[in-house]
Amino acid sequence: MRRVGILLPARGRWKGYGIEARRGAELCLEDQSGSQSLRLEPVFREEAEGADPAAAIAELADRENAVAVVGPLLSASVERALPAAARRSLALISPTASGERLGEGSPVFFRTCMTMDAFASSLAGLAVRRAAGPAVAILTPAERYGRSFAAAFRRALEERGGRVLLVREYDPSLKDVSAWVAALKKELRPGLSRGPGGWAVDALFFAGTAEQAGMILPRLALQGMDPRELTVLGGSALNVPGFPRLAGGYGDGTIIADGFFSAGSLPAAQSFARRYRARHGVDPGAAAAQGCAAAEALAAALRGGAVSPGETLAALGGLGEIPSVIGRIRLFPGGRIERRPFVLTVKGGALVELEER
Question: Range of 40's domain?
Answer without folding.
Answer: 2-114+265-339
